[in-house]
From TrEMBL:
Single GO molecular function: carbohydrate binding
Pfam families the UniProt entry points to: Carb_bind
UniProt domain Endo-1,3(4)-beta-glucanase 1 carbohydrate binding: residue ranges: 25-73
Keyword Signal in record: yes
Span of the signal peptide: 1-21
Key words, A-Z: Signal
Record-linked InterPro entries: Eng1_septum, PhiA_domain
Top-level taxon of the source organism: Eukaryota
Protein name listed in UniProt: Endo-1,3(4)-beta-glucanase 1 carbohydrate binding domain-containing protein
Length: 255
């Protein structure tokens, strides 16, 4: 019994020593490089969605929403109203999702599947419809509700449903599920697509086996205080904004 306890204690001490050996030094502090990055040899910033935040004049910031110029933190400029853009997932530590395009299908935003679109069979000329393109909201006029970049009359608005999934309205209908959130979704030039709604914790890519996931590929969720525990098995991600040429139209309608 004594020998067994001694071996167990030795194992614990060895593990602790190994953990300490993994720590690195930043200024006067030690840190875990899997959780933090050291900026300029003195300042610690956390790693969020696989990417270390940057440091600027006493604050850690995300490059998807801010920039640092002459040691001053400045918010990036939202895309101009109506600018067409696509979205790409970013998480350098998650090879399964990093670089995937956001795809519209079954009235949801997904990752790693094909875009679903429709074109009337006669009487109209349609875009190819195999890429998910979004139209930037008019933030200068106070709007923060993007729309799918489509031709169909009435358009297709983007919203967050009560579970946090990103949905868009069916063509010819403005109906959205009760409790959904419209607005608060802003694409930044040179940055990312950010959820500015109160209580937001960024984005998560959920596989079919995770709570809320379904079908094939991944489902995109906006993480918040209410669904954070449910989405614990999902991968945190950022969404990179990719502006498209003026006049780009994604589809007649997305389905």
């Amino acid at each position: 019994m004594t020998k067994t306890l001694g071996l167990a204690l030795a194992g614990l001490l060895a593990a602790a020593g190994s953990a300490r050996a993994d720590l690195q030094t930043c200024g006067d502090a030690q840190y875990d490089p899997s959780q933090y990055v050291c900026d300029d040899g003195n300042f610690l910033c956390p790693i969020v969605a696989g990417e270390g935040l940057s440091y600027c004049s006493g604050a850690c910031y995300s490059k998807f929403m801010y920039t640092c110029t002459n040691n001053a933190l400045t918010q990036l400029t939202p895309l101009a109203a109506g600018t067409p853009f696509t979205l790409t997932v970013s998480n350098p530590t998650a090879a399964a999702v990093d670089g995937l395009a956001v795809d519209a299908c079954n009235l949801r935003w997904n990752l790693g599947i094909e875009t679903c679109s429709y074109c009337p069979t006669t009487g109209v000329e349609c875009p190819v419809g195999n890429t998910t393109v979004v139209s930037a909201p008019d933030t200068a006029a106070g709007s923060s509700t993007p729309a799918m970049d489509v031709i169909v009359p009435g358009g297709q608005a983007v919203y967050l449903d009560p579970s946090g999934a990103v949905g868009y309205t069916q063509a010819h209908s403005a109906q959205i599920p009760g409790g959904s959130i419209t607005g608060g979704l802003v694409p930044y030039s040179g940055g990312g697509f950010v959820n500015l709604n109160s209580g937001g914790y960024g984005w998560a890519a959920c596989p079919p086996t995770a709570a809320g996931g379904g079908g094939t590929g991944y489902t995109l969720f906006a993480v918040n205080a209410d669904n954070k525990a449910t989405l614990a098995g999902c991968t945190p991600v950022n969404l990179k904004v990719n502006p498209q040429p003026s006049g780009t139209i994604g589809a007649w309608q997305y389905t």
